[in-house]
């Protein structure tokens, strides 16, 4: 499956979560904004921090995820459910016309270090594979 993981966070643990998905699913992992745009992706997983306002880089990137660039999008978020940033990003993706898979994954990143436990790594990889299954069947 043509898939990409995109994220925007200065937190090193969050980057480790994104890379864990990339390694397990054998796909590219890029910062937002990417060096080159998504094109004809079956699935894009977007990682953001929901602490504070949605970053303009994420807002612009998400508004360009039209169906020819990405058929399906899901979110993994550093923060708590139902934040303003999550709601805004969800609305931007839906308005862009891509299929938003409404099963976000929430992580709690610490402020020190970049390591995550094997259990946390397995949990996010399991979530990513579940999202892949949903995307394949859409």
Describe the structure in brief:
It contains four helices and six strands; from the N terminus they run βαββαβαββα. By secondary structure, it is α/β, with parallel strands linked by helices.
SSE pattern: EHEEHEHEEH
Distance separating the two termini = 13 Å
The CATH level-2 architecture is identified as 3-Layer(aba) Sandwich
Q: Mean of residue pLDDT?
A: 92
Alpha-beta classification: alpha/beta
CATH topology (fold) name: Rossmann fold
Evaluate the radius of gyration: 14 Å
Global morphology:
globular
Find the count of extended strands (DSSP E, 2+ residues). 6
| Strand composition percent | 15-25%
Ordered list of secondary-structure elements with their pairings:
Layout: E1 3-8, H1 12-25, E2 28-31, E3 41-49, H2 56-63, E4 70-78, H3 84-96, E5 99-100, E6 105-107, H4 118-136
Parallel strand pairs: 1-2, 1-3, 3-4, 4-5, 4-6
Helix pairs in contact: 1-4, 2-3
Task: Explain what the structure shows.
With 138 residues, the chain is an alpha/beta fold. The protein has one domain (3-136): Rossmann fold, CATH 3.40.50.360. It contains 4 helices and 6 strands. The protein has helices at residues 12-25, 56-63, 84-96, 118-136, and strands spanning 3-8, 28-31, 41-49, 70-78, 99-100, 105-107. Strands 1, 2, 3, 4, 5 and 6 form a 6-stranded parallel β-sheet that branches. Helix 1 (12-25) crosses helix 4 (118-136) and helix 2 (56-63) packs parallel to helix 3. The mean pLDDT is 92.
List the keywords.
138 residues; alpha/beta; Rossmann fold; 6-stranded parallel β-sheet; 4 helices; 6 strands; 39% helix; 24% strand
């Amino acid at each position: 499956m043509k898939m990409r993981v995109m994220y925007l966070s200065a937190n090193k643990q969050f980057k480790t979560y994104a890379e864990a998905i990339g390694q397990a699913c054998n796909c590219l992992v890029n910062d937002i904004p990417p060096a080159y745009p998504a094109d004809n992706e079956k699935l894009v997983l977007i990682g953001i921090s929901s602490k504070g306002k949605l970053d303009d880089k994420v807002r612009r990137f998400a508004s360009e995820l039209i169906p020819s660039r990405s058929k399906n999008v899901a979110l993994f978020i550093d923060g708590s459910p139902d934040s303003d940033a999550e709601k805004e990003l969800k609305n931007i993706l839906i308005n862009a016309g891509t299929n938003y898979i409404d099963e976000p994954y929430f992580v709690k990143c610490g402020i020190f270090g970049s390591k995550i436990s094997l259990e946390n790594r397995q949990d996010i990889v399991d979530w990513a594979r579940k999202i892949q299954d949903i995307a394949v069947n859409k």
